[in-house]
Specification:
Elements (H helix, E strand, L loop, with lengths): L3 H14 L1 E3 H8 L3 H12 L4 E3 L3 E4 L8 H6 L2 H12 L7 E4 L3 H10 L6 E4 L2 H10 L4 E4 L3 E3 L4 E3 L1 H8 L3 E6 L3 E2 L4 E4 L2 H13 E7 L11 E5 L5 E5 L4 H9 L5 E4 L15
Parallel strand pairs: 4-5, 4-9, 5-6, 9-12, 12-14, 14-15
Antiparallel strand pairs: 1-3, 2-3, 7-8, 10-11, 11-13
Amino acid sequence: MINDLMVDVLVNLVKRHRRISLNAASDILGLDIEEVTSLAQVLSGRDDFAVFDNSICFLMPRDQDSYRVRLRSHYIEKYAIGRLAASFIVPGEHVVIEAGSTMTILAQHLSQVENIEVSTNSYAVASMIVGAGNASEIRVIGGNLYTDGQGAMGPIALRTVKQLDADWGIICPVGLSSSGELMYYVEDEADFARAVMKSCRRTMVLCNSSKIGVPSRFVANHCSQADMLVVDSGIEPSILEGLTAQGVRDVHIADVEAEAASEIVLLDI
């Protein structure tokens, strides 16, 4: 018999994490994996939840956590993704980078690439790369400065991005829906990402596995319009197959297990 109280407990847990593996839910709730699977099947019958191979998602958009919380949330996954993404950038290239916690962590790796040109609406990204002293050229995109690490947005930022002619645009949506939509909670962020994709010769999408299958409020574009998707090894095979079927061109998977803890330094920006 399904315990209605435990169903409600699982509901709250999934809403908090947006997407959580059944194994993690089992550990947190202190239940057997069979019990959690049964509870998840109950939720799968509701419109606002979806169950994949080994995870369950909450499908209703919700506000983002604060920048400082997001900077530490899924840090190892973001670190692995950032390292892999930076390896595709070569000296001399012009890269446009949007604001966000994943981009701040990406900058930690990108700062090691010499003589690149970076345009960004994020003061955190800019300061990280400037501080490395690798003779890179940094342009900060102006506009309406959002609080909490969201960077500069609005008409000025959009006009600036539309005038750029860059080699790479790197974006990181709030969610990547199961149908391949790149989604943001704030409309200005979706507009900015769309402009980046249009102004750059190639687009790289960074997305940790906790965001995959989780929609948000505003669509920037479809993932098939990007040239590369970089995810972590937590992505489930069925979801990856679904995205490939949606037209995702080039997927690279960062191995989270390969990241040695001694190499990772938490940022405090």
